[in-house]
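Per reviewer request, we include the raw input and output of the structure prediction for the construct analysed in the revised manuscript.
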Amino acid sequence: MIILFEEYQYNTEKLKQVLSERYFLPLNSSKSKINYVGYYFNPTINEAVVILPKVFINEKSLAFDEFDPETLIFQSDQIKEQLSMKGKNKIVFEISTWLYRAIQQFNKRHYYNSISENQFLNQIVTNLEEKSNTELDIILSLLKFYKENQAYFTFISKSAHSQKNKINWHKTINKKQPIIQNNTPIYFDLATTRNKINYDEELLIIFYSTLNFIKSKYAFDFNPPQNYELIKGHQFENVLRKGCRILKSIKYKYYSDKMISLYNLLYSFFERSENTQSKKQIEEVLLIKDFNIVFEDMIDDLIGDSKLLPELKNHADGKQIDHIYKYKSLIIEDDIYFVGDSKYYKPQNNIGKYSQAKQFTYAKNVIQYNIDLFNDNKLDKQIRYRENLTEGYNITPNFFISSFVNKDFDFSKSELDETGKPIMQSHFENRLFDRDTLFVQSYNINFLFVLSAYLSNNSTLKSNFKKDTQKKFRDKLVRFINDKYTLYTLEPKDNSFIEKHFKLLNGKVYKPSQMNEKLILALEKPDLTDILTKIESDLKTKTEYYLT
């Protein structure tokens, strides 16, 4: 298997040897880069090429320590050995297959997308949910069959060997000559029972030998059973050339559904091998251009809400939000929409001012959409963006989420964490409840966790992650607001309070729906406004307040 990396600058002549020219972009007379991610089988060299996302490239070279991406094109025996010693051969295969399946999943979720290229359409019978006929599909099917049928293989082995060495004493006494010692016959040549050919075992030997062969090509984790003598080396190369004929000769020896399934999987593997050797095999392509769209879909599957109105994601000005969901507002029990944007970057890249400006525009669009509904009296009563008495606006949470590759290549931990303090934008100072005062948080998440969770059938894992993450985003912003502002609950003496102090309090006060007689006042720390002194005579009570 050949490993390449998206957007890494390769020697053009080397790339031409392993990848079709239409999948990479020349940069100058000697260098080219790949704008695709995914799987490509090159029948000319009989090799699978996997293009990993650019998140695996760090400042030095790539996430696999000192291994040069140029060298990994051909994965010399030395490189393979070093990968094996570091335990990364298994990791490379695992990441490659997860990525391959993620692109299949994306195609399944978005059948009419315009960024994928899948040219190999001949379907085979396989035990994968998505039926296709790529080399990697067949190998994954073989591995899945191996992992799911251990008990069945053990049963076959025990049944086949239980009578193999049992002594037939009737034949031994009648046909073998004993040695008499101390009047006791001792038989050195024993007659044993002989079983007829066990065709199940014969197929298992071909199966284990096949897995052992492709193990060296794809470097996955497989330890063949010790009680079978496998076909190896030149003998297996002969099987590769004649595998279909060998299987046809024993085709009608199998009656169980499991062995028939295994027979079909092996036949598919050898048929591909023979087609490749006879130059009948064509390219296999499952590549994604603009992988950021797939990354966005993976994140949205984890934290977004697909049931919201399309107008909340697709705005009238042509902009489209990556992620949006309804959650508890920062203020008491009202609800608000949390707005997010996925950032698919190389690890060393930072979120720029252009991205920040776009995200604030997304938030303003969401606010305006809900204000229009509010003005038409069509907004869900539980959702609060503005209230009429103070003309104050609720706080609209925003976030960025980008990814990194866990240094231990751990798929099980999200390692989701905030990166730096929230970025703030405002038209006026010290107006927390102004519609133009906006905040955006930045988070980083383990790419391998996102990849595995996207493909997981564990609905509980996804549900718990979504709940924990949405709570985390809110709690972090609540903590930031409490640190940046001093908040008070105010109880005015009469209804003229807002009108009397409107200019002084504009954008600084807000009346949650659950508060009948009270308001919330927010003053940026350190408070130099002297507002409290100016309004104190018109208040019944004033109490310091914290967002929770």
